[in-house]
Amino acid sequence: MRNIASLTALLIVSLGFSQDKYQVSIDLTKAKNDKVPVEISVPKTDQEEIEYHMPKIVPGTYSISDFGRFVVGFKALDKNGDQLEFEKISTNRWLIKNAALLDKITYRIEDSFDNFSGYGKNKLFEPGGTSIESEEGVFVMNTFGFIGYMDGEKFRPFELTIIHDEKIKGTTSLKKIKETSTSDTYTTENYHSLADAPLMYCEPDIVSKEIAGANILVSVYSPNKVLSAKDVMDNIDELMEAQASYLGGKLPVDRYTYLIYLFDSPTLSGSWGALEHSYSSLYALPEMEPGRISQMVKDISAHEFLHIVTPLNIHSEEIHNFNYIKPEMSQHLWLYEGVTEYSTHHVQIKYDLYEIDDFLNEMRNKIIRQVQYDVDIPYTEFSKNILEGKNEKRYGDVYAGGALIAMCLDLTIIKSTNGEKDLQWLLQELSKEYGPMKAFKDEDLFDEIERGTSPEAGDFLRKYVAGVKPLPLKEVLEWAGIDYAAESENNVIATGNFTPALNDQQEISIASTKEMDDFGKKLGLLEGDVLLTWNGEKLTFKNFQQIMDRFYKEVNEGDKVEVLIRRKIWGKEKEKKLKAKAIIVKSFEKHTMNLTKNPTEEQLRIRNAWLNAQN
Description:
The chain is 31% helix and 28% strand. The chain contains 17 helices and 28 strands. Strands 4-7-2-1-11-14-13 form a 7-stranded mixed beta sheet. It has a 5-stranded mixed beta sheet with strand order 16-17-18-20-19, covered by helices on one side. The protein is globular, with a radius of gyration of 28 Å. Residues 1-18 have low confidence and may be disordered.
C-alpha cells in the first residue's frame, strides 16, 4: 500500500512539474525574409514584473553576441491572447508588466548569417549564429539564438517542437520524445542544456556509427554536394578511436553529433570554424575539394571533440553557473583552449596518426604565432578580462601560447614524476574528480594540480601562467632530446620564395614576388603566373607542398630545373616553359626543433613517455 501511495505522489509531482516548463514552438514552414516565428508558453509566476532575456554572450565564444538584436515583433500575451505591457530595457532584456497573467511570448528571429539593418559592425562567428534559408531548405539553429528565458527561471525544463517541411530532416544531440513526418519534439532539463545543443535542418545526408561505446552521428549540408556525411565519417573514425584511447579507453559520452554546414560564398564574419558543445559540435566551413575539406573537418574536429574534457568535464564555477547577461570569465582559458589545442596534436602522435616531425612542426607553428602577441600581462589576467578590447585582440594566443603552456606543463609533470604521470593522466583524474556537474574554484586550480602531480608543476603554473616570464622552451624541450633554436642559419636549395595562392579554378598561382629569391628571378616567375608543373610533376593544391618539400630535399646545386606556367600575354593565356639551374641560398629559420643526434638515456626515457616514441 505504501508503494502505491508513493507512486501516486510521484505522479502528482511529475504532473505538476510537467506543467511548470517552457513549451517552445518554432515553425520553419513559416520562415519568410530570413525570419522565423518563435512561440513560447512560459512557466507560471506570481511576480508582478519579470524580465525575458536573450543571451548577451554564450559559452565557448568569448565575445559579445547580443542575440536580442535579432528579435523582431516581441509580444507578451495572457491566456486570452491579449497583449501585456512591456518595456525593452536593453538590447537583450524585456521587462514584462503584470507578469502573473503572462501565458505566452512570441516574436520572430532574424538570420545572423546574412546582413540586416540592425547588425552593425559586430558580425557573429557563424558556428555561433543562426541561418534561415527557407528557399534552399536549410536551417542552422543554435538554440541560444532563437530562444531565451525568464530571469531567475533558467533551470525550468524546456520542451521544443520544430515544425518543418516533409523534405527536410533535423539533426541534433537533443533527446527526441516525439516525431512525425513534419514535426519533432525534444526535451531538455534546463536552459543550459538547451543552449548546449544546436540543431540543423536540411535535406538529409546523415550517417551514424558506433565508435568506442558511443553513437557517433554526422550530418552534412553541402550546397554543391562536394562533401558527404560518409566522407567525414570515414575520415574521423580512426581519430575517434585514438581519442578514446587518449581519454582512458572509451569515449566519455554515449552519443556525439557532428553538424557540418558548408558555404559556397564568403561568410559575413569573414571567418570559418566550429563551436563545441557537450554532445555535439557545429561547423561552418567553405566548400572546397572533397579531400581537403575532409581533412579540414578532421583537424578541427580533433580539437572540438576534446572540449568534452575541458571545459565540459573540467571547468570553473564561472562556466558552471554561466551568466548569459553579465558573464564573469574564468582565469583559465589556457586550460580550456590551450590544453585542448595541444591535446589535439598530442593524441595523434601518441597513437601513430602523426610522425614526430609532424608533431614538432605543429608546435613550431605555435611558437611562430605566439611571438606575434604582446604578452605583457599574465595569462590568468588576460583570460579573466578577455571581453575587454585589448585582451580580446589577443584571443588567438590561447591557441598558440596556451598550447605551448600545455606542452611545457606536460613535460614538467613527466620529468618531475619520473614518467609516472603526465598531462593526459592529470586530465583523466580531474575529469573523475569533477565531471559536468561539479566545478572547481578558479583560484584553487594551481594548488590542486600541484597536489596531484608535483611541486615543480605548481611552480611552473605560477611562474609562467600567473606570471609573465617567457616560457622556458629550450630547457624543457632539451629534457626530451629536442634541440630548439630561436634562429638558425642553413644553406638550402632555393625554391623561389614566392607567395602562392589558389585562383578561381583551384590552381596554384603566384600572388606576390616581393620576397622572391634569386632562383625565382632566374626562372623569370611573375605575379599572376599559374604553375602547371614543377620539375616534371603536375601541381595541384593537394600536392603542392609535398612536391616543393621533395624538391627542397632531393635536388642538388646545379641540377637543371624546368617549370611549366600559364601566363597572360597581350590579353591571351599561353603556356610557357621556364628553365634555370638549382642554386644554394642562405636560409634563416626561426624556432627550429630537431631531434638531438646523441640523446642520453634520460632524454630518450622522457621522449618516449611524452610522445610514445621509441627512438
